[in-house]
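Support reply, case 0932

Customer input (verbatim):
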Amino acid sequence: MLPKLPHLILFALLIGCFTISSSLPGKEKAAGREKSPGYAGLTVHEWGTFTSIAGARGQAVEWSPQTGSTDLPGFVEHFRGPQFKLGLRGTVRMETPVLYFYDSREENVSVKVSFAKGLITEWYPRASRVEPVVNPAAPNPATWSLLHGNTDGSIAWDAVAVSPNLRAEFPNEGRDSHYYAARMTSATPLRVKTPTGEQHEKFLFYRGVSTFQVPVSANLTADRRVQIENRIVDEIPNTILFERRGEKVGYRIGGSVARESLLEAPELNGNVGDLGRELEGILVSQGLYQDEAHAMLETWRDSWFEEGSRLIYVLPEKFVNGILPLSISPSPMQVTRVFVGRMELVTPATKRAVERAFASHDQTTLAKYGRFLEPILQTMLAKDATHSRAREYNQYLGAVYSSLLAQAQARN
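Our regenerated output:
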């Protein structure tokens, strides 16, 4: 019997190794992520988008990023009311970061996010603090240009319970909203204590506007190529050049950018489905779970793939941590943050489309560019102040600014 003992010991060791590996955080099966994985400790994942528009010299320019329509549910809270943002100007719109928490046991945590040169504008569940605190007698925030200030914004939730056994009905207004797509994950439900009772959600959600300098610039060359410059030390993990004209779409995956890269304009012979699968793979490679990557794509599919041209790129996590410092107590075992940059490009095709639409009073086409129409016109004028329609464009911009300011002042 003694010669068999080493085999028994080896078998026991193999069983032990399998048991340990099966309990690691984020363990996945071949067919997809387990519905109820075991976690050695608290794990936190986050995704979000930074949106900007490239000006005449390729840099992110100031614009009014909050003027577009929103489909946020009514239960989402707003800084000083939902209408104050009309006229608020910055260089970056931070769109829909969501913080997911994973734990196999009940855990109480506090969370704080700071935003460099920025302002948190929407959030849910109810936060314990949102700063800066605005004096009600102070000037209307809608007249603010964040470029004139250096104050960092922040948001904090002091009492968040990560509750794996919670069987909650999350709030739902019964109408379509991209907000709900972010719930399509196996993240642990959350309970947040507020003065009016508990609020339940699958994540912590927030948005904002800032003036920080995005890490890339995108210049258009005379031969329809896009020159990408990385303005930070860390490598940009991945880049995608996308274009849509009506029902025709095209994209070109450029890969990482250490210092500079030159991308050819894509042929309009692609399809959104293929690009969506490529993007999901890129997001997973950066550390998101498959269901998180899919939820992010479903949240932004209509926006990322809408009319126009844009550079889509992945931001280095170190850069995100500098712009958007995150503190969680007690500290998680693992934190993964994946942010996508979106930079709108004013290409010759976009200029021609806008010029034709103005000439024919085609409001349908102009509406496709939505919140980007103002900076598109500004960029066109910056490149050609003597344009034959310069006066018309300036009159349009003046009317837009006056309307936004009047609406904001009337509603605050």
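We compared this against your earlier run and they match. Two observations from our side: Residues 348-410 form one domain. The helical segments are 5-22, 272-285, 290-304, 317-323, 348-360, 363-369, 373-383, 390-410. Please reopen the case if you see a mismatch on your end.
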